[in-house]
From TrEMBL:
Species classification: Bacteria, Bacillati, Actinomycetota, Actinomycetes, Glycomycetales
Short name of one Pfam family: Ammonium_transp
Organism: Glycomyces lechevalierae
Transmembrane regions listed in the UniProt entry: 12-30, 42-60, 101-123, 130-151, 171-190, 202-219, 231-250, 262-280, 286-305, 317-337, 357-380
Recorded coiled-coil stretches: none
Localization terms from the record: Cell membrane; Membrane
Its membrane topology: Multi-pass membrane protein
Family: Belongs to the ammonia transporter channel (TC 1.A.11.2) family.
Protein name from the UniProt record: Ammonium transporter
Signal peptide start and end residues: none
């Protein structure tokens, strides 16, 4: 077995911690985007995902996702109950001198954030108990097998030669498609088309987006699996792709007559981060800028499709994660270069083979995830119920589901913001 590499081990431990930070960051980001009467529920959905997925991953998830299975669809059960992490303490399982317990922790953090991403689509209306059951079932039935398909040497997508550096297909398309399937089952919010669902706290949104961006360096650069040049390239590409996406998004808004906004800028951050994820260590910085810029252009229009097709994706998980993730995965067929990816995309002298494989494999994951999420949602709907009552939804899900309020402020009237109505000037001066 390889000797322990302390440098690689330190980097992967650091990266795992950065990826874990992304879930509380997501709670801030999503929480700020909701109404004040929904912020606690949204943050709790993210928080409980950490608890659920951590335990599921150690008990069974890692075996399904990374075990050396005899099939192309799921791993064996040789590392059930954390057995591999407990027995291989001083050397890696053949990977860069990093102990298995560290790889267990790193993979766990990816699974956590993937599940948490889905929660944004069903803000304001999904029962917390139903979310707990959904998250548990989905991570076992969808995330873990798809992770095996995409990243394990025995997985059918990996064997097909499809590339996914850090999770464009396995994480973002996977979560975005599940969000679509679940949102359809849960249904639209009351007053969706004409109600006031404006974000209640933009500073919270910016704080969450900034912490997501920070954590994403562990997500992408950590996926090099070593402290090496690939990690450096992934780090650099993550930065420039995200920067390009912000600028492109704001430009599109300007052309459409929309003023530059925190919502637009932060949405550009997420779009760029998602799009570069599958390509982070496999393209040049110039390619990364192009990938980010295209994401910043297409995602504003993709978000608008929910109004055309009538599905209520409350916080735009589909328009950002599924669409930007799909674009990022397909973009490898254009921008991959052989020195990093082992194969050239179309723009570097390759043929259309990789482009076709990237699109086909990503499409299969999209359909599978959406379908299973839809089925799980239907089972919940017709058993324990998946949605809070109309009265509870109108009053605010936080009080109904958690008995808490995000802000201890006096409320004069129902403003939909959770903040007190503006006092009249003469009363202020009295």
């Amino acid at each position: 077995m390889p000797e322990l590499d302390t440098g690689n081990t330190a980097w992967i431990l650091t990266s795992a911690a950065l990826v874990l930070l992304m879930t509380p960051a997501l709670a801030l980001f999503y929480g700020g985007l909701t109404r004040a009467t929904s912020v606690i529920n949204m943050m709790m959905k993210c928080l409980v995902a950490i608890g659920i997925v951590s335990i599921v991953w150690v008990l069974v998830g890692e075996s399904i996702a990374v075990g050396e299975g005899s099939t192309k669809f799921y791993g064996d059960f040789s590392s059930l109950f954390g057995s591999r992490a407990a027995t291989e303490l001083t050397a890696a399982a053949g990977l860069n001198g990093v102990p298995s317990a560290v790889w267990t922790a790193f993979g766990m953090m990816f699974a956590i954030i993937t599940v948490a991403l889905i929660a944004g689509a069903v803000a304001d209306r999904m029962k917390f108990s139903a979310w707990v059951i959904f998250a548990t079932a989905w991570v076992i039935l969808v995330y873990c097998p798809v992770a095996y398909w995409v990243w394990n040497a025995g997985g059918w997508i990996k064997q097909w030669g499809v590339l996914d550096f850090a999770g464009g297909t396995a994480v973002h398309v996977n979560a975005g498609a599940a969000a679509l399937g679940l949102a359809i089952v849960v249904g639209r919010r009351i007053g969706w088309k004409d109600g006031n669902f404006a974000p209640h706290n933009l500073p919270l949104v910016l704080l969450g987006a900034g912490l997501l961006w920070f954590g994403w360096f562990g997500f992408n650069a950590g996926s090099a699996f070593a402290a090496d040049g690939f990690a450096g390239l992934a780090f650099l590409n993550t930065q420039v792709a995200t920067a390009a996406a912000i600028l492109a998004w704001l430009l599109v808004d300007r052309i459409r007559g929309i003023k530059p906004s925190i919502i637009g800028g932060c949405s550009g951050v997420v779009a760029g981060l998602v799009a570069i994820t599958p390509a982070a260590g496999l393209v040049t910085p110039l390619g990364a800028i192009a990938i980010g810029a295209v994401a910043g252009i297409i995602c504003p229009f993709a978000i608008g499709l929910k109004h055309k097709f009538g599905y209520d994706d409350a916080l735009d998980v589909v328009g950002l994660h599924m669409v930007a993730g799909f674009w990022g995965s397909v973009s490898l067929g254009l921008f991959a270069f052989e020195d990093a990816a082992g194969v050239n995309g179309l723009f570097y002298g390759g043929d259309a083979t990789l482009l076709g494989k990237q699109a086909a494999a990503t499409g299969v994951v999209l359909v599978y995830s959406a379908l299973v999420a839809f089925i799980i949602g239907l089972i919940l709907k017709y058993t324990i119920g998946i949605r809070i009552s109309e009265e509870e939804e109108l009053a605010g899900i936080d009080a109904a589901e958690h008995g808490e309020a995000g802000y201890d402020l006096p409320i004069n009237g129902n403003t939909g913001t959770g903040l007190p109505e503006a006092a009249e000037p003469e009363k202020v001066n009295a």
